[in-house]
Amino acid sequence: MHIGLADFAAPALLILGDETSLNWLAGCIATRQSIGLATSPLVKLVSVGLVIAPTDAEGSLSRSNTLFNWKVSRLEAQQFAQQLRALAGTGKPAHAYLDPNTNSAGVQVIASQGEYRDAVFIQ
């Protein structure tokens, strides 16, 4: 799995994964684990930092320079896990938008399988 910023029509926090890594991320989100992705051997962060944490409040995505803090509510955890598992099971190039309830980061979160190469990331 590779995660970084991509500049499409609008900036995006892009999660590129395969079946295994997308299912792993779905499982972490569904079980509401705090995930420090910088220490995971399954993840390569490209010029960004990302922490995913559960919250009992409203979900949100915030940003401080290149560090993103993604707080996932209970309802979002179910929704995002379902979207990631469906994406992992497509067997063809596809993507899913993982839209937090509140987004002050100025980017859209997109998970993708088989659509892009690492060169799409802003270095």
Question: Tags for this entry?
Answer:
single chain, 123 residues, alpha/beta, 5-stranded mixed beta sheet, 10 strands, globular
Describe the 3D structure.
By secondary structure, this protein is of the alpha/beta class. It contains two helices and ten strands; from the N terminus they run ββαβββββαβββ. The chain has helices at residues 19-30, 74-88; strands spanning 2-7, 11-16, 35-36, 44-46, 49-54, 60-64, 67-72, 94-97, 102-103, 108-113. It has a five-stranded mixed β-sheet, covered by helices on one side. A hairpin with a 3-residue loop joins β1 and β2. α1 runs antiparallel to α2 (74-88). It is globular and about 35 Å long. The model has no long low-confidence stretch (mean pLDDT 93).
Total number of helical segments? 2
Kindly state the percentage of residues in helix.
10-25%
Give the oligomer, counting copies of the same chain as homo and different chains as hetero: single chain
> pLDDT under 50 segments (min length 5)?
none
Q: Using the CA coordinates, give the radius of gyration.
A: 13 Å
Global outline:
globular
Secondary-structure class: alpha/beta
Chain-averaged pLDDT: 93
Largest sheet: number of strands, sense, barrel closure: 5 strands, mixed
Query: In percent terms, what proportion of residues is strand?
Result: 35-45%
Strand order within the widest beta sheet: 4-1-2-10-8
Secondary structure: number of strands = 10
| Terminal CA distance | 17 Å
Order of helices and strands: EEHEEEEEHEEE
